Amino acid sequence: MTKTGHGRMTLGAMYTGLGLTVVATILPYVDRVTTHLLADHIRAGYPSYTDARVDSAVTTYLVLLSVAGALGVLAWLWTIRAVKGRKRWARPVATALFVIGTGIALTGLLTRDTSGDTGLPTVLGLAGTAPSLAALVAVTLLWRRSRPV
Predict the structure, then answer these.
(1) How far apart are CA 20 and CA 82, in angstroms?
(2) Tell me, what's the pLDDT at 82?
(3) I need a surface site. Which of 28, 44, 127, 138 has the fewest CB within 10 A?
(4) How far from each other are the two terminal CA atoms of the chain, in whole angstroms?
């Protein structure tokens, strides 16, 4: 598969998705030490929270986002290996992982918490959806191939 331009494009989209997943996973940690968007977002939604409680909520989000990111990285690596190995099941598995990953990303972007606002600030929520765009391209390219993977 990697010898064709189409195969290189597919793998390029997959490696882009892997990179975007890593960036989306690291971004909340960068925010924690720089802009504090997540902490400020929580503080705005829950003004009665103490600093300790805000910090605890931020830590909880970091754990959840880290687990999702780590699973995303593993999914990308496994799928890239399957595509490179021309496994017959690569297309349906890549499609299923795309649907699952997009569902998780949209949940992070759109779910409202008890304050009435989204749980994540928009910037972090959108960053979490970026890998899904690369996945959409990769899955589309996988299914457009004329012969089975």
Answers:
(1) 20
(2) 96
(3) 44
(4) 7
